Amino acid sequence: MENTPDFDDLPSKSQRKRDMDALQDIGEELTQLNGQQLAGIELPESLREAVLEARAMKRNEARRRQMQYVGKLMRQVDPAPIRVKLDGFLSVSAEQTARLHHIERWRERLLSDPQSVSEFIAEFPGTDSQQLRTLIRNTEQERVRGKPPKHFRALFQMIREVSDARDHGNEAAG
Q: Which of 57, 90, 146, 159 is the most exposed place for a label (fewest CB within 10 A)?
């Protein structure tokens, strides 16, 4: 009886299936990356090629089979460093999205509340107030006349530049 394996130490069939699905999910996330992000992750060449092939596939059944193959190749690598890189990309994306939403909220406030201009200038002291007021006025005229949103975009760009300048100034000071 001493030579019998202890079956309690082995993962169940359900757990092995969940583990394989998790590896396939990581493979799916790899297919969603852009070329630069994918190049930044250390992968065996066979896995990289399989991911690139899967990205190019549009037909559902062929892509499903290719993703199963990617999952099989994922079993041969340590997924932890890949997961760390993927999570890093996601947090950067979430941070960028939050910044863009913050800029968008400022733009809407500036266009809807005349008092917000002085608040904006107080928060971002390096702002060219004359240019800001001109962009706001031109954006409002653009909306009234139904013109393309050229000044609307320029206002967003100005807010982003002023915000970036302040944030980089804080990083340098800190």
A: 146
- What is the fold, at CATH topology level, of the domain defined by 13-77? Diphtheria Toxin Repressor; domain 2 (1.10.60)
Q: What is the b/e burial string over 44-71, where b = at least 16 CB atoms within 10 angstroms of the residue's CB? A: eeebbebbeebbeeeeeeebeebbebbb
Confidence of residue 50 (pLDDT cuts 50, 70, 90): very high
Residues in CB range of 71: below 8 A, 6 or more apart: 20, 21, 23, 24, 27
Q: What is the mean pLDDT of residues 105-115?
A: 92
Q: What's the topology of domain 94-173?
A: Diphtheria Toxin Repressor; domain 2 (1.10.60)
The answer to whether 31 and 55 have CB atoms below 8 angstroms apart is: yes
Cβ–Cβ under 8 Å, residues 65 and 27: no
